[in-house]
Amino acid sequence: MIKKLLYLIIIFLITPNITAVIISEIMYAPTFGENYNEWIEIYNDGPDVDLSNWSLCGKNILEGYVDHNEAEALKNEEGLILTEGDYAVLTDGGSGTEVYSNFEVSGLALHVDSASLCGRLSNTGKEISIDNNQGSLIDSVTYNSEWGAQDNSNSLQFDGTWCEALPTPGKANSCSIPEIREEIKDTSEIVESSNDTTEEIISNEIGENIVEVLEENTEKELTNLAIEENNELSVIKLNPKDIKTENDKEDLSIEGYAMYGFVFFCILLTFLFILKKNKFNKNEFD
């Protein structure tokens, strides 16, 4: 009994995680029209995965997408291997999809062996599930309209929690870091408040970002703005999945050493157990 238990522990520890595929984005209420514009994105956070014989809501996942606008032609047949750290976008089968005409889509193109995704993604809510080639549940989510993305051009996106944001099919989700869109165009302007009062803002060189606000109920012009025209602030989006601190790396290294140490200990314990048992059997016959 102890021997079998030790074997099970060893197998459990040394067997790698088969897959880390998750449902990462859902477009259930597109403003282009729902018949051909719904889509689901999945993300692979683990080793490369062969999606052959996988299914979405019980319907087989197939390579490429069916173009509704071009006589249902099958396009982007790039296979069913979802590589580590990459995305795939699943669309309707049957008479096809218009997603690739109405959205900027990246990632692996896939479709389901059905006229619609999960029997149509309802605006009131739906359960979505993905199973592997053995029929085991890999991930599932049940969304509802209270989550957002209802007829406002947004999609539901997962980044630790679900939120709504501008759609990013096949790319990193955009709701984890607030977007900042500011453009500085003029070197002198007057800022008026809602009660017809103004405030003076004096800014030094842009590298120092010094801002001083004077009392309300005064009206003065902005002065001394040493900023070139048409300078734009750009936004750099970082995928939280790709960000690791030095402490994270040390923790991962320690966990790895601990894992190998424990596996070695289990193997050694098993060897000693078998050796002791063989010695006992030998003494018994002698």
Description:
By secondary structure, the chain is α+β, with helices and mostly antiparallel strands. Among the domains are: 18-165, Immunoglobulin-like, CATH 2.60.40; 244-285. The chain has three helices and 20 strands. The chain has helices spanning 2-14, 99-102, 246-285, and strands spanning 21-27, 39-44, 49-50, 55-56, 59-63, 65-67, 73-75, 81-82, 87-91, 108-112, 125-131, 137-144, 155-158, 162-165, 183-184, 191-192, 198-199, 201-203, 211-213, 231-232. Strands 12-11-4-5-10-9-2-1-13-14 form a ten-stranded mixed beta sheet, with no helix packed on it. A hairpin with a 5-residue loop joins strand 6 and strand 7. The relative contact order is 0.13.
How is the topology of this model organized?
Elements: H1 2-14, E1 21-27, E2 39-44, E3 49-50, E4 55-56, E5 59-63, E6 65-67, E7 73-75, E8 81-82, E9 87-91, H2 99-102, E10 108-112, E11 125-131, E12 137-144, E13 155-158, E14 162-165, E15 183-184, E16 191-192, E17 198-199, E18 201-203, E19 211-213, E20 231-232, H3 246-285
Parallel strand pairs: 9-10
Antiparallel strand pairs: 1-2, 1-13, 2-9, 3-8, 4-5, 4-11, 5-10, 6-7, 11-12, 13-14, 15-20, 16-17, 18-19
The value of Rg in angstroms is 28 Å
- Strand tally: 20
Unreliable runs, pLDDT <50, ≥5 residues?
Answer: 11-17, 177-230
Give the strand content: 25-35%
Helix content: 10-25%
